């Protein structure tokens, strides 16, 4: 349910975390820390604060955040508790409609990516097509691990921005 920024600024910690805890996948600690930085003058200030919290959290917590994300479009390995946000985002990108050939390639790319980097391929897919997503997977599996760790975080920040746009009105 969308909330106004004024409402969010007035919420107690528990209500604030309940409202924004899903912005960063299975990581309500980001919203909890953001509560301490209230009040926010605008949605961009809220977004910047939440992003800064992750940036400041250190590599171990960042890796845990990355690991909280599901593999893209892989129904075989998709957790039963896949968040509503992730389900909707993947469905909007057409990832529930992959051809059998695309499914096989995507599974192979997910496995290769996890083997190389130790975490799932993450891409903000909201405005991407199935071919663009597969091409991104093909290209990024060859990246340097340090570069890809940073890229995964940047994609997470984009995803969080889209989610905030859905949750915060005005």
UniProtKB/TrEMBL annotation:
<dbReference type="Pfam" id="PF09349">
    <property type="entry name" value="OHCU_decarbox"/>
</dbReference>
<dbReference type="InterPro" id="IPR017580">
    <property type="entry name" value="OHCU_decarboxylase-1"/>
</dbReference>
<dbReference type="GO" id="GO:0000255">
    <property type="term" value="P:allantoin metabolic process"/>
</dbReference>
<dbReference type="GO" id="GO:0019628">
    <property type="term" value="P:urate catabolic process"/>
</dbReference>
<dbReference type="GO" id="GO:0006144">
    <property type="term" value="P:purine nucleobase metabolic process"/>
</dbReference>
<dbReference type="InterPro" id="IPR036778">
    <property type="entry name" value="OHCU_decarboxylase_sf"/>
</dbReference>
<protein>
    <recommendedName>
        <fullName>2-oxo-4-hydroxy-4-carboxy-5-ureidoimidazoline decarboxylase</fullName>
        <ecNumber>4.1.1.97</ecNumber>
    </recommendedName>
</protein>
<feature type="domain" description="Oxo-4-hydroxy-4-carboxy-5-ureidoimidazoline decarboxylase">
    <location>
        <begin position="9"/>
        <end position="165"/>
    </location>
</feature>
<keyword id="KW-0659">Purine metabolism</keyword>
<dbReference type="GO" id="GO:0051997">
    <property type="term" value="F:2-oxo-4-hydroxy-4-carboxy-5-ureidoimidazoline decarboxylase activity"/>
</dbReference>
<dbReference type="InterPro" id="IPR018020">
    <property type="entry name" value="OHCU_decarboxylase"/>
</dbReference>
<keyword id="KW-0456">Lyase</keyword>
<keyword id="KW-0210">Decarboxylase</keyword>
<comment type="pathway">
    <text>Purine metabolism; urate degradation; (S)-allantoin from urate: step 3/3.</text>
</comment>
